[in-house]
Design brief:
Number of strands: 12
Number of helices: 11
Strand order of the largest sheet: 3-4-5-1-6-7
Largest sheet: 6 strands, antiparallel
Strand content: 25-35%
Radius of gyration: 25 Å
Structural class: alpha+beta
């Protein structure tokens, strides 16, 4: 029996997950969490960016890759616990970098026990990474570690992580046309933080009960939570509170027109994000040196996962009433961008240079006259 148990304990398994993210680890840099507890035993987790070769020495950042390694009984029994462990730190990683991380998927799972000649293997089909250039933000690993340590030791850790995950979901929707959904997640994060702020406010003032805090704030107990959200968490930002609550309630209960919800969200979404993120970091007890970095440039600006947007403007020249090449429905330019360099600049930001190869696919007698090429980083 002992030999059988030892054989199980000595079985090693590896799972690999990946998914889109605006966070970027430089090559040869990663975040490693050792002995993270799971239902099947402790695992070691490594977060890194997959870098994609674009020919020659040019490599560009791809998706976020998560490797989980540990022991277990069978490959099938470890895949779900390993996946749950892999996503556990994503809310804090997204919060610390203030950048979007979308839900990753398991791509690989296999037995990695050394010294054997047969191993179980699993692979899920995930679409290959496109190689399209996206906006990204370098991870400051030291500050992420500081936030992870602070939050994990905090007595309100569960609520803080819940709020951080709502913040991550808000950043996942940080896209044109999805402002209302972003604001709704920010409001849910605010609600998750309310009890934490009440407890910390009571403790700081030497109060034993919520009723005492309500009296000190000059409100009835039933108004304590809304008051704490507005005055303490949102720093008396009346417009942010009013429009944030209206948009969130309108989305949840369906009584507010979408155009009005989106208008409210566009007005206050950035301020709400700043209030919520600052509150999570401060309530989490993040040390001051790390806090100053996290609340400064560039981490003070929310970053969604957007491809870089490029616009070509010009004119179609020619007398032919037919504009499209034979076999095509419309006239268009076949776009083939080539990345010529991709490396950190002196400021530590990723500098990418590329050339644009455009091939007009037009009818005979029609030509294209270029006027401007615009490259935009979406907000």
């Amino acid at each position: 029996m002992d030999a059988q148990l030892n054989a199980i304990r000595n079985k090693r398994f590896t799972a690999v997950m990946r998914g889109p993210a605006a966070v970027v680890f430089w090559e040869n840099e990663n975040l490693r969490i050792e002995k993270f507890p799971t239902a099947v035993g402790p695992v070691d987790i490594t977060y890194a960016t997959r870098w994609i070769s674009k020919g020659g020495k040019v490599r560009i950042p791809g998706q976020l890759c998560i490797e989980i390694v540990g022991s277990g009984d069978t490959l099938e029994s470890v895949l779900v616990p390993y996946a749950n462990a892999g996503i556990a730190a994503l809310p804090v990683l997204s919060l610390a970098t203030n950048a979007s991380i979308e839900e990753p998927d398991i791509e690989l799972g296999f037995e990695s026990t050394p010294g054997i000649n047969q191993r179980d293997y699993f692979q899920s089909y995930l679409p290959p990474e496109s190689g399209v250039i996206h906006v990204g933000r370098q991870v400051n690993v030291q500050t992420v570690v500081a936030v992870l340590k602070a939050v994990s030791k905090n007595p309100d850790s569960e609520r803080l992580v819940r709020a951080a995950n709502q913040y991550r979901l808000a950043l996942e929707s940080w896209k044109l046309g999805r402002e209302s959904l972003s604001l709704a997640h920010l409001w849910m994060a605010l609600e998750a933080l309310t009890k934490v702020k009440i407890r910390q406010a009571c403790s700081a003032a030497g109060l034993n009960r919520e009723e005492e805090l309500a009296r000190r704030l000059g409100v009835e107990v039933k108004e304590l939570e809304p008051t704490v959200r507005k005055t303490l968490l949102l720093k008396n930002d009346e417009e942010c509170y009013r429009k944030g609550k209206a948009a969130s309630d309108g989305l949840e209960h369906g009584f507010l027109g979408y155009d009005k919800m989106r208008e409210y969200a566009k007005d206050v979404r950035h301020r709400m994000a700043s209030h919520v993120r600052t509150a999570i970091l401060e309530l989490g007890g993040v040390p001051k040196p790390a806090l100053e970095i996290l609340l400064g440039d560039p981490f003070d600006k929310p970053l969604g996962h957007w491809p870089i947007v490029k616009y070509m403007r010009g004119r179609l020249l020619g007398d032919s009433p037919i504009l499209a090449r034979e076999g095509n429905q419309y006239p268009f330019l076949r776009w083939n961008p080539i990345v010529t360099s991709c490396a950190p600049d002196a400021a530590g930001k990723l500098s990418i240079q590329f050339t644009e190869n455009l091939t007009p696919e037009l009818a005979d007698g029609i030509s294209f006259q270029a006027q401007s090429l615009e490259v935009w980083r979406p907000d």
